[in-house]
Amino acid sequence: MTSEVSDLVATAREGRPRAVARLISMVENGSPGLREITALLCADRPHRARIIGLTGPPGVGKSTSTGMLVHAFRRRGMRVGVLAVDPSSPFTGGALLGDRVRMQDHATDPDVFIRSMASRGHLGGLAWATPQALRVLEAAGCEVVLVETVGVGQAEVDVASLADTTVVLLAPGMGDGVQVAKAGILEVADVFVVNKADREGTQAAIRELRNMIALADRPWRPPVVPTVALRGEGAEEVVAALDGHLAYLEGSGELVRRRQARARNEIEAIALTTLRSRFADLHGDRRLDVLAARVLDAELDPYTAADELLAAAGRPG
Amino acid sequence: MTSEVSDLVATAREGRPRAVARLISMVENGSPGLREITALLCADRPHRARIIGLTGPPGVGKSTSTGMLVHAFRRRGMRVGVLAVDPSSPFTGGALLGDRVRMQDHATDPDVFIRSMASRGHLGGLAWATPQALRVLEAAGCEVVLVETVGVGQAEVDVASLADTTVVLLAPGMGDGVQVAKAGILEVADVFVVNKADREGTQAAIRELRNMIALADRPWRPPVVPTVALRGEGAEEVVAALDGHLAYLEGSGELVRRRQARARNEIEAIALTTLRSRFADLHGDRRLDVLAARVLDAELDPYTAADELLAAAGRPG
């Protein structure tokens, strides 16, 4: 395994799509080599990518907007990664679509890496695999990674929290204000994009959003950018808004704070996953069964049993 | 705290509704006295209640069916508890509805305890609070507890797994077969109830269900019982089906296995919650921050950091 994995990581660093795809699959499937892969990726990290999250309700045009931003960053000559963890995204469809999903215009561009991640059901699955997948894309030389999620569930909010900048997409006539308020999305949005801005109600939607933003007492006021992603309109304005937010992050020290919080979350997620697998081992040893039987017989209360379980899981071996 | 809590537990054992409600609130809110409450409840458990889970899609008539079963068990002279953890249930409405929610006909019955539990957002919240709430109801002398959940999310499946017998409710014309297959609910159902059986399509729905059941290779074949809960029709047939399943559970040794699995899950859930709060303490100590900073600086990979976190959380004090 060891030399195979280190070859794979070395090949991924050269930006070879197949190696990148293979590593992300291993990460996503919780391969036994994951620990080693992560250590190798961390050992000599050439640079840190800018992570931009895109989220919003289904039908708002997230994938088209992602495509538009890929174009915009490519025009700057940047290598771009895309992670689509949106189950409604055409890039996902609930499963992996092979090595490298071909996005219309970027099929032959060696500097664009697009990857779908299956949104796994188990607790913490996504939150735990995504940082590792980002690391693979960084190792492959991506300077910016767009993470596309759908803005509904907790898992997606968790993924949005992986981003340096979170873009919330809305469209006129979707009852946006209400949605935003309900989802508590105002707290996570760094940039609002009102897509399909050639539709009626765009000005009203923008106004409503700006009023909500004015009421929120936050040091950063999210700009509201109208776009028509299908025609590429507004791409430069979105990128300018993203640059503005990045400058704010760097100037205020918030970038370091966010990345620090991200690292904390990742460490915790790995620790909990590790512990769960130790519990499973203890179940294999029947130790957990013995504790459960004693709780059933009212010999032990479950808190004391949990303490014994943690103590057993904490002992090496 | 100590004597107050033990007085409360003693009063709850006498079946006083206010003490029962107060204890369940404490359990649900993660009161600091929880550990002590649980220990007291476990110390001298008079008997074990029969736990019956009711689940199904919104609009199927779960609350009406729960009410019908409360009646049926009361006719047998049994003391009955109800835990409604269905966010769409009129008993919940997303929050606690006071000490003891008055269900139409049981408002003045001292042998019926009805309680709504807010379905909390955080991971494992419900799975962790429900067993404790069940314990309170058992201490109050409930011989049967009905746990009403909505059959959609993982949390609800987790709660269903707390039951000795899980009843899945369906209604004709809701695309039941597809729903059942999709939700993997066939694996958790011990008894199917087709409610609103005065509607067109009832026979077709029952046939479709029986065909699906026949295809599944399980030692227990869930019976399919038609009801019209609104008029109390089919109550005795449901109770007979529940008795049949209980006899199967006892005869096959499955009852012990299920309760054993339940105790394991509870111990694990408590252990994970305990560990999380230890992580939070370590964050307070800035130890987690130091680990995160080292990961950010690529001094440490996150797996090694997670190992250090677990080791630190495992050390007493």
Automatic annotation (TrEMBL), chains A, B:
Keywords for this protein: Chaperone, GTP-binding, Hydrolase, Nucleotide-binding
Transmembrane segments: none
Domain AAA+ ATPase: 48-294
CDD domains registered for this protein in UniProt: MMAA-like (cd03114)
Entry-linked Gene3D superfamilies: P-loop containing nucleotide triphosphate hydrolases
InterPro entries tied to this protein: AAA+_ATPase, GTPase/Isobutyryl-CoA_mutase, GTPase_ArgK, P-loop_NTPase
SUPFAM superfamilies reported in the protein's UniProt record: P-loop containing nucleoside triphosphate hydrolases (SSF52540)
Keyword hit for NADP: no
Record's keyword annotation contains Nucleotide-binding: yes
Record's signal peptide: none
Record-stated family: Belongs to the SIMIBI class G3E GTPase family. ArgK/MeaB subfamily.
Protein name listed in UniProt: Methylmalonyl Co-A mutase-associated GTPase MeaB
Species for this entry: Streptosporangium amethystogenes subsp. fukuiense
Lineage, opening ranks: Bacteria, Bacillati, Actinomycetota, Actinomycetes, Streptosporangiales
